[in-house]
Specification:
By secondary structure, the chain is an alpha/beta fold. It has one domain. Helix 5 links the parallel strand 3 and strand 4. It starts with 9 loop residues before the first strand and ends with a strand.
Length: 250
C-alpha cells in the first residue's frame, strides 16, 4: 500500500469476478470502491434505503472475508482510505484519479481490450457534476473516448441520463430498493433501465418489463435500451435480506 492507505484508486478487472467476465466480450472494466454509506462519518450513498445499506455489495466477495479475531481487512481499510482522501485531500484525489484512468486505458489497450470505468462501485456520487480539472471539467470531460458507467438510486440522475442530458460517455442504471417503486416506474417511463436484485432465480418479467441477466457480466452500457429490468442475484449479506430489497422469486 502507498502512504495514502491504498495501492490504487481503481481495481483492475482481474481482481473482480463480475467485471472480469467482460473480457470475453473484449472489454476491461476498472472499478473504484469507497467505504459505502456513512462509514467514516461521510455519506456517499444519500439515496440508500435501509435494505440497500444492509445488503450492500461492500460485503460481497473478498471484501467480506474477515479473519477470525479481527474486525476488518485490507480491502475495507483501502476503501476507507480512498474515501478519506476524496473528502480531505480533493486536489490530491483528483490527480490520482486522472492518473488511474490513464493507467487503466494503457493496460486495457495493451491487452487489446476496450477500457470501461465504473467509479461508484460502492458509492453513489454525481460524477457528471464533480469538477476534477482546475478548469472545471469532470472526469467524463477529460476522457470523452472512454465509456464510464454506474448504478444509482438517485431518480433525478437516472432520468436525466435516460433523456440524454448527461455526457454521452456516461451510462446509468437505476437501482430498485424496497422503498422506491414509484421512482422505478418513473425511470422506466423515461426509458432508463432498472437493476433489481432477486433471490431464487430470475423471472422472465418484472414490472411488466423484460428481465435480462445482469450477472452474465457487468457491461451495463451494452444492455438493451428503452427500459428493461437488469436482474441480479443476491450476494453477500443480501442473501439474508428480509426488508424487501431482494425480490423473492415466486
Amino acid at each position: 500500500m502507498t502512504h495514502h492507505g491504498f495501492a490504487e484508486l481503481l481495481t483492475p478487472d482481474g481482481y473482480n469476478p463480475k467485471t472480469k467476465k467482460g473480457r470475453a466480450r473484449g472489454y476491461s472494466t476498472a472499478v473504484m470502491h469507497f467505504a459505502p454509506a456513512n462509514i467514516g462519518g461521510r455519506d456517499v450513498c444519500q439515496f440508500r434505503s435501509a435494505g440497500c445499506t444492509s445488503a450492500c455489495l461492500n460485503t460481497a466477495g473478498r471484501g467480506g472475508i474477515i479473519v477470525k479475531g479481527q474486525t476488518t481487512n485490507a480491502i475495507q481499510l483501502a476503501r476507507a482510505a480512498r474515501k478519506k482522501v476524496f473528502f480531505e485531500e480533493r486536489a490530491t484525489f483528483n490527480a490520482l484519479l486522472v492518473t488511474a484512468v490513464e493507467t487503466h486505458i494503457r493496460r486495457a489497450l495493451k491487452r487489446g481490450m476496450v477500457p470501461m470505468v465504473r467509479l461508484n462501485g460502492t458509492s453513489d456520487l454525481p460524477w457528471e457534476r464533480l469538477a476534477i480539472a482546475p478548469d472545471g471539467r469532470t472526469i467524463l470531460d477529460l476522457f470523452p473516448g472512454v465509456q464510464f458507467y454506474d448504478y444509482t438510486k438517485n431518480p433525478k440522475r437516472a432520468i436525466a441520463n435516460a433523456r440524454g442530458e448527461h455526457p454521452a460517455n456516461y451510462h446509468l442504471t437505476f437501482s430498485r430498493s424496497e422503498s422506491n417503486d414509484s421512482d422505478v416506474a418513473d425511470v422506466l417511463a423515461a426509458g432508463g433501465n432498472v437493476a433489481v436484485v432477486f433471490a431464487g432465480g430470475l423471472p422472465e418479467t418484472f414490472a411488466e418489463r423484460a428481465v435480462i441477466n445482469g450477472d452474465a457480466d457487468d457491461l451495463r452500457p451494452l444492455d438493451p435500451r428503452g427500459g428493461v429490468i437488469v436482474g441480479l442475484t443476491a450476494k453477500g449479506r443480501g442473501k439474508r435480506d428480509t426488508s424487501g430489497f431482494v425480490v423473492r422469486a415466486a
